[in-house]
Each structure stands twice: as structure tokens, then as C-alpha cells.
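Lab notebook page, bench 4
Experiment: in silico fold of construct C2
Operator: M.H.
Input chain length: 336 residues
Purpose: comparison with the prior construct
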Amino acid sequence: MDPWSVSFVWRIDNFSKLARSEPVTSDCFEAGICTWRLRVWPKGCEDGGTHLAAFLEAQDEMWAASATYKFTVVHQVDASKSISGGVNTNKFRPGETASWGVLQLIDLSMGWLAGLAGWQRDGWVVNDKLVLRVDVTVEREDRFTLDAGMPSDVALKLPCGAEVPVHAQLLQLASPFFRAALEDVKGSALIPVDGSLGAWTYVLMDLYPLHDPPALTWGSVFTLLPVAHKYDFPRLLARLVAFVKDNSDALTHDSKLKAYSIRWLALAERLQLDELRELVLGKVRGMTREQLQQAIAVEVEAGGSAAKQKVHAVREEVKQLGAARDALFVIAAFAS
């Protein structure tokens, strides 16, 4: 498996019920050093739009990347009838141009595509589900590399398939987790770890003195905290928590923003980071019951079908709670 070249398939449910003017977004996936997702306007992204529009969006705030990509609407009966939107190459820059795509992927108004009945009859929509595939190849840019005169003795095996060479002694000095894990290791070793290639690239750039990692942002801190916590990098963990503390005025009740306080509370609860949890609670204790219930709805939508099964029970719990603080912990546990 090449982590720099990935095919991602998105099955868009309830296609006939999607609003004309509202986009829908996919789950996130990894390709190369970045995390990505798709955004689709099922019936055009302009008023009176006549074409399905699809975009590839970089979710990482740490890395810029050049990517070549191709969208394909998959014919679910005869794959040879699938329609592709051509090959595109763009530079994705966090905070600037992090989204590129195709405004006119399929004409929705002409011939056999006109109307949902035609889509269903001809095998494009089956069980009210449209299938969209994107093939992404990210230009390989190894932000973190080892000096040729310092051969590595271990490698980290990531879920995406990448193997990242490192030095056991440096890992042991920086992390009690790796100090114990590598204590009895003789010779070279391959160590399975969780986390994205982008997150581990940052961790190792921070670990090795010859590299300068990018500046921290709300998005990058949210991505890095689970790795720094699970693999016990205390210096990095302290710096990440300090970022939230120093920028706590930016914590918000707006679920569309990276500094959304409920999501940060859920992360602090999941990782059992007491200092971070109390810091975020200080921001959100004043939320009204209506805001709490809205927060639940947002987390349910983000959590997908498994989360939706719990929504009624959680809402009932919130209604019965007298204190906002207790309700927040319900939300935190639910979002975890």
C-alpha cells in the first residue's frame, strides 16, 4: 500500500433528499502527509446550478501539499459507464487555498441524467445512494529525513502503511512509553503506532534538533494531542496544552470553528487531561440548556449513525440535569 497514492470511495446516502443549495461532506481520509475530505454540492453549488460539483479539501493545518486528483461518479451496475471529471493538479495551502475541485462534474439537466427516476433506472443511484470515488496522489515531500551519516535502528509502522525510520535512543530519551517498549529490543525493529503520517512528521521534527516544525494552530494541536498523550512525549504535551491556555480567549460556542469548546472538552475528557478539561470548562460553564442540546446535535451529526442511536437517551439526560457542568460532562462522554 502506497500511503502517497490513495483511492477513497464515498457512498452518499439519501441522495434524493439532499437540499439543492447545501453541500455535504465525507469522512476524512489520509493521503501522503495530509488528511483530506470531500465536499459535494449534489445539485450544483450555484443558484439554479445544473451540474454536480465536487471538491477535495485538505484538513491539515500543518502542511501544504501538491496533489493530483480525479473524481469519478461510479456506475453501480456497469463500471464501464462510470464518468470521470479529468485529472487535476493543485497546490493545497492551509488557511489559503485548501480546497480545489470540479464545478461541473456531471450535467444534471440533460438526457438520461435528467430527474432522479432516470438516475435510479440507469444504475447511477441504487437504494438512494450515489457512489463517488476520488483518486489522489500527493507529491512526495519528506519534511522529516534522517542524516545519511546517522542510520536508523528502528522504524515506526503507521496505519496508512508508511514506515518512518527513527533512532531508538532518541525516542527513549523523549518518551517513557518508548523507553519501556524498546528496553529489550535488539537490532532493528518495526514498531506499530497509531496516528497520521502528518502528526508523526511533526512529532519527529520537534524531537530532532535539526528540524523546525511549523507553528502550532488549533487544528494541528487537536491532531497532535492524542499522539503526544498516548506515546507520552511530556515536553510536547506541555507545549500543546500551553497553546490552548495561551489562546483560550479564542474558544468559542461556534461548532464551525476549530476552537469549538465542546469538541475540545470532549477531547480533554477522552484523554483524561484534567488541566485542559478545567480550562475549557471555564469557557463553557455559562452555556444555556438550549446551547447544550444544540451541541449534542452537532456531535451526533459528526459521529455518524452509531452516535445517532444514542441521541434520544442523551437529550433526556440533559433535560433532567440541574447543573450545566454535569450536562457538559454528559456531552463530553457522549462525544468520546
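Observations: The mean pLDDT is 79. The longest strand covers residues 83-92.
Next step: discuss at group meeting.
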